[in-house]
User: Fold this.
Amino acid sequence: MSASITYYGHCAFLWQSEGGYRVLVDPFGNSEDRLWFPEPFPELQADVVLVTHDHFDHNHFHRVPDCPTVLRGEGEFTFGEFNIRGVTDLHSGRSGLQGMKNTIFTVEVGGVRYCHIGDNRHDMPVAVARAIGEIDVLMVTVDDSCHLLSYAQVDELINRLMPGVVIPTHYYIGGLTAVESTLRSAEGWLETQNNVRFLGVSSISLAPDDIPKARQVWVMNHAA
Assistant:
């Protein structure tokens, strides 16, 4: 049993189960005063859209036609072969200090348990970490401008949640992200990490046996 996952850049991923069910997280777009993405998010088919928080680069669920189910907050949801859980915490940095909520989503499908951190702070309470539980794959925000988290904060978060695979997100990608975003690549952080794999593809299928015993960082291409 396995499921596929496709990276669309920034923080957007699409899972598809063997049964054909599709779950999308954090489709991005622009706001009236912030033009981070030269091209609109592609119109994808999805049954469920997860939105970690209400920032323009995470909440463009309207790009998915036919009004899918949109999950925004805390709770548990079972759909087809998917088990999804939302855990509420706080956005990193100034937004979090101003009280902005962020939902951390765990998505279990194909026997693999993923955790999409959204833009969460690194120093989540113990109760939040316990609610997340054991995970296989962590999608974590990191870029060399330290827009959301410093290198040390990213590493602390990874060591706390202990995934087998780490996939960096929320960094500058040429052709996808505008320089006006002030985001940078993740190359500097990657140079500090051991066991980095550049997969060279935007979509992979994962089963439990594919999760390495020693932690690896996987860098995915983004789907056009």
